[in-house]
Amino acid sequence: MPTANSAFPANLHFDRVTMATMEAAFDRVCGALGCGHALTLVKMAAAMHIMTLAQAGERDPERLSAQALLAIGFRPTAAEPPLAAAPTVAPQVDQDCAESLPVE
User: Fold this and answer.
1) Which terminus of the chain has a smaller tally of CB atoms within 10 A, N or C?
2) Which superkingdom does the taxonomy of this entry point to (predicted)?
């Protein structure tokens, strides 16, 4: 029986900075969707788009999140504020999980 994690490609490897950038982009997606970090198929699809774009070289969290939201069909209404600007400082890496990340 497939699990939620089996949908993600196993052959993708990212450095710590890219992982932190993708996390920032995913946080922006979750904020825009307004449903927190609970796993949903929509957010899994957005995460896959973020990983694919990062694998292709995109490193801007604002562009990663915007493209992922477009790919899953999210269109903000006029009443919704635009996404917040990307952070101006480098994203922080969680040291507990960073130890287990493959380094390129």
Assistant:
1) N
2) Bacteria
* 86 in a structural domain: no
Count of the separate structural domains present in the chain: 1
pLDDT in tens, 12-56: 789 999 999 999 999 999 999 887 767 788 889 999 999 999 999
Q: Evaluate whether residue 98 is within a structural domain.
A: no
User: 57: domain range?
Assistant: 13-73
Judge whether 87 lies within some domain: no
- Is the CB of residue 14 less than 8 Å from the CB of residue 47? no
Q: Please report the DSSP string for the chain in residue order.
A: ---GGGGS-TT----HHHHHHHHHHHHHHHHHHTSTT---HHHHHHHHHHHHHHHTT---HHHHHHHHHHHTT----TTSPPPPPPPSSPPPP-HHHHTTS---
